[in-house]
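Archive transcription. Copying these from loose printouts into the bound notebook so they stop getting lost. Printout 1 of 2:
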Amino acid sequence: MRIVVVGSQGQLGSAIQKTMTEDELMLVDLPEHDITDLSIVASIRDFGPDAIIHTAAMTNVDGCEQDPDLAYKINVVGTRNVALAARQSNAAMVYISTDYVFDGTKGSPYWEYDAPNPLSVYARTKWMGEQVTRDLLERFYIVRIAWLYGDGPRNFVRTVLRLAESKQMRMVTDEVGSPTYARDVAQALAQLVRQPAYGIYHLPNAGACSRYDWAREILHLTNKLDVEVIPTTNFQRAACVPKQVELNNIIGANLGITMRPWTEALQDYIQHLDEA
């Protein structure tokens, strides 16, 4: 397949490059390509893609709160431009969304067609990106993931290992989600884009934990058992984030696309951390 990877230098984009090695890829990222510039439509259309995987976004949740216009420009206008490129190319589009479109008050795992209620600028602009995708296209996959980590110098795992050098850290117990390994998502997407089963999917790693439990598991797997993790709650930040979101993968599993438990994926990532 001819596939455009938008946001190719990010954690998920990098994982897609390593996974879809038999496909012909067009890599779209800054500084060469700016999705907020309408010229991106012609650039992608000229490639003649079969599918576009749109991973690019402003993902700094607190940063979105501080600059909502920029968040809207990247996450909504940028997504509209990518969707226009898909429409003009007659290509299917994968839009990567987030568990943060939900408010975390359901009290049980969220199904794919539960009603979103975004709490922050980041979450609202990602939800708007979903709406843009649905408005402009008939052939789309909206894929919600959560707490992504993968290759690269900055992610939660590396942050925990850096904080571990001081032998003590604080982590919240009242934020619950699903740590998700970028390579697992990339492998799921490689299966998904080859099936004309369009719609909404939840594809995080299975299960959920608090950030406190996630940090403890990271330290356990790296044998840093002498580091103290102090539980805390109500961490003050610019953005309001959902307290408990676990995404149910029902529709993807019906296609045979299942996601392994987050603990197994984390162990795999840590075993290969020096290669990342």
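Printout 2 of 2:
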Amino acid sequence: MFPSVNEQMDKIRRGVDEIIPEEELVKKLERSIKENKPLRIKEGFDPTAPDIHLGHMVSIRKLRQFQELGHQVIFLIGDFTGMIGDPSGRNEMRKHLTQKEVLKNAETYKEQIFKVLDPQKTMIDFNSRWHAKLKFEDVLTLTSKYTVARMLERDDFKKRMKAGKPISMMEFLYPLVQAYDSVALKADVELGGTDQKFNLLVGRDIMTEYGLEPQVILTLPLLIGLDGTEKMSKSLGNYIGINELPQEMYGKTMSIPDNLIYTYFELATDVPNEALAEIKQALADPAVNPMDLKRRLAFEIVKIYHGTETAKQAEEEFDRIFRQKKLPSDMPELRLSVSEGKIWIVRLMASGGLVQTNAEARRLIRQGAVSIDGRKVTNLDLEIELKDDFILKVGKRRFLKVVVIK
């Protein structure tokens, strides 16, 4: 039994940038109720990176909402298209991945998405299932269904042509290959970020060319990262990973700019629409401290991925460190022998897992974000004598207890 069309549309509209066209979606929902048949809701993911963050989860959470409304979700892993590389939002060609890299990343995707999606109501598919079987004549037929003029309307391509940067024929084919996924799956609805709008529209056109009812498109906003300016991205370091420790997830959420509080509530939490209206009203009230709303936001986000009890513990740990100015109740340890004599601060940060590269360590030291037992480190060449235990702190939330074995 499906909810009414109005109930479904209220849920579907939340946090969506565009529904193209909305009247077609209404008709599809009406038919779905009449025939008691779920819609096929598709989203494709090119597994170009192994870790999922809150930005990725915006659309995945929308897929979950469709599941709650009774529809069939198809989580499409673009193992074939992932080896091409999506040119969306790019001013230059993407690096191509090997099949081994793509499949490895795909496995980690599958592990993470079920933190939100219902495994019983999720169909996972791989687009190599049909693309690998296409003959060259099939590819030529596909290319005949779209014009070069239409392809050059794409913003990314226009900018690159103007700048004299190369566009490979493979990149021209990418939107057609992605569009054919919708043909193969007979999708009713396809989701994607606002940067995917061109590709999704091509999907509508190509479905019509193959004699199918075109899919409706839902575009979703690109979640702005912790820096408050760029979209959330691991490469920019402004992300909240869904596999991160609860304390880290809570602390990162507390660091977002105040102007993003409502957006994060809307796109990254399960608070009902009525509560969203209250949050918007509270944010407009000068008497309300945004920090209190941010605490609620951080709690809600941690709860989704780690559970209520863990969210409470993360909140208590945050208060312990930032309100009571105490050390974390639990922190990682690095054991070093006194016989080693000294250790370079940069090497220590990397060995302790506080940074990924030496360059990152140097950058943090220059920024004044590194301290030992509360004393700021300013010397990039500092050699620490290993005599007694000490606490190394990087940034606001990363701690390491160095235990010196004598």
